[in-house]
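Quick one: structure tokens for this chain, please?
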Amino acid sequence: MRSKFSKTTYSVGFGLALAFIFGCSSDDNPSNNNQPNISSGSEISSSSGGEQCESVFNPANKFCYDGNVYDKCDGMPYNPSSQICENGVAAPAKCGGVGYNPLTQGCCDNAIYSKSTQQCVNEASVMTKCGNGLYSQATQFCSGGGIYPKCDGEEYDVSTQQCCGNVTFSFSTHQCVWDGELVVYDKCDGQAYAPSTQFCQSGTNEVKYLCGTETYASTQDCCNNSTIFSKTTERCTSGVAEAKCENIWYGIATKFCYNGVVYDKCDGTVYSPTSQICENGVATPAKCGNESYDPLTQYCGNGTVKNYDTPLTDARDGTKYKTTIIGTQTWMAENLNYNAADSKCYNNDEANCTIYGRLYDWATAKTVCPSGWHLSSEAEWIVLMKLINPSCGNVDCAGAGTKLKASRGWNDSGNGTDDYGFTALPGGSRSINDSYSYYDGGGSRGYWWTNNGSSTKTFRRMVYNSEDVFQNGNYSNDLYSVRCVMD
């Protein structure tokens, strides 16, 4: 038959055993004099007033401690608040040599942790509880049941702040942006923006797109995402930012106004036309030998500073041209650059128009000169050649090329001495055939229409590797430079 035991029977037997055990342990461990209550059953007598165990248990293998039932350690009760049962032996609870309370604490890789707020993960690291998750206090923190990374090792107020790299910031007034690295920027009146393409405009506190890579003021605007212009004195027309010089509108990206005259910038830079020249995209002091000169009114002819004649202003577009008196003739000292229909810049590059002027077909060339001026004739070229070299005939002229060429601007050491201020430059040509067209000779050859010709039209030619001026004829639809002579 199955034996029946009463609570009283368990209590008596278990009480005798406890009396023996704690009598011995008291002698061995004087620090345990104030042990919490341990009982053999649900009826507990305690000098410290502890609670009794309400549940029924078998005192042969269990015991009651402070109202809770525990398994005996190899048949013996022990103190669960300071001891652990390991391999059947009740031993002092130690973690890294430090005692702890196994009821409320745990040991994780020699580190003591609180069981109520922490947990040992993989028996190697202590993680802290936060809501339904765990986090590392070394790198994270818990706020409002959420886990967040620390910012440079510090906690912060997640309701008003965020972390950007290693910096905390207020997200109501600032923003974190990747700009090669994480950087904190001010918001623009509370509005976030992308600093790589936008900016916060001072004065308006509005988010604007950069103009290329530049910011601009509230009095300015951006034209075609490339040029900043003034709203009050300039305009954007067909994607080109323009300003007014006297009564002429010009593109401010490539030109500038100086004393009421429009000039081309030097590789995008404004310079002083009265003391500098633009050479190979660089504005340099105007020097003739060691003598400075004013390029607007003077030129360097064969090493000597000489004066141009009265400048010509084209009323059609405001362009001002230098002029030079050679004998009885007054010539333009630079190629015409009036933007007539079907005229071209060499290689379709506006920068070449700045240097060499425009290229025209023969029919346009005959009528394109400003009022009071005309396209040079063969007869006028012959007069010019004979003045330079009286022995020249009516066709080619030896040595005249060197004296008419500019002192700079020709390729392969092809520069001349510019004795007369004619300043011939190699503007090249555009040849047009039935099935194709092409540019040729820019920087090395110069071609100038004359107003003479029948089936073929005559022109004058200079080349980089010759001292002469040549006469040739060609079809009228080819495009060459134009030099105008005063009527």
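The two ends are 147 Å apart (CA to CA).
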